[in-house]
Amino acid sequence: MSRYWPGILPDPSVRTLDDMRYVLASPDAAGTMPLYFMYRDLALTEDDRQWLAEQNVRFDITVIPPGIVGGEYVKTKGHYHPLTPAGIGYPELYQVLAGEAHYLLQRKDLRDVVVVTAKAAEFVLIPPGYGHVTINPGVEELVMANLVSAGVASEYAFYEQMQGGAYYEMEGGVWVRNPRYPAVPPLRVIAAVEVPELGIRHGRGIYEMVSQREDLAYLNAPEKIPDDFYKT
Ligand SMILES: O=P(O)(O)OC[C@H]1O[C@](O)(CO)[C@@H](O)[C@@H]1O
């Protein structure tokens, strides 16, 4: 991890197989095996920490080792974000630091389900109103960082009730529709897109946005986000 984070690392929060039982394609997979690791609320300096607190923004790094669980690639549990006072879902900004990622995004009303593929140095903005699951479809460790409103409490209930997201990515890259969902649109698969208006350009470092004190207001005020950046 020191390759990706030169600062102090707290103990990670760990998701085990048991934590994931209600979101897996094969719910009988069970056990205490750790699946992924979340290093939350990181800052390189005390000044950065204070600035992040003033912006009401949190910086995390998540490590998802490669693997298959019950025929499915290892993935995060999946959650939605609550609404801001203006009634818009909180967004989130991810950057892949190493490995490759598939971000399975689904609108709360299920009118859109999209997979955004991203490789190292690419950014993925989780749009307001979309839940997200991150899948490691590769053979290498996936390391990713995120910036998100510090006020966001992740909402897991829908994913748990539905036994995961609208689709499962099975070994070999096969997408299988989750039969517990009502009719959902066909899966769109798109490559990670930049959002230059927000300073989101592939190749630059996500933590620069903190150290250079960039405008992250859109993470708490998503009405500032252009609303067509994922349109096909
Ligand atoms: O809470 P889940 O669904 O396990 O997802 C974990 C991810 O969500 C975050 O909490 C941020 O939304 C990250 O720390 C981590 O990448």
UniProtKB/TrEMBL annotation:
Domain Glucose-6-phosphate isomerase prokaryote, by residue range, is: 34-180
As its record notes, the protein acts as a catalyst of:
alpha-D-glucose 6-phosphate = beta-D-fructose 6-phosphate
Q: In which pathway does it act?
A: Carbohydrate degradation; glycolysis; D-glyceraldehyde 3-phosphate and glycerone phosphate from D-glucose: step 2/4
Query: Could you name the Gene Ontology cellular component terms for this entry?
Result: cytoplasm
Q: What is its EC number?
A: 5.3.1.9
Keyword entries, A-Z: Gluconeogenesis, Glycolysis, Isomerase
Q: What is the enzyme's class at the highest EC level?
A: isomerase
Q: Which Gene3D superfamilies match?
A: Jelly Rolls
The UniProt family comment states:
Belongs to the archaeal-type GPI family.
Q: What is this protein called?
A: glucose-6-phosphate isomerase
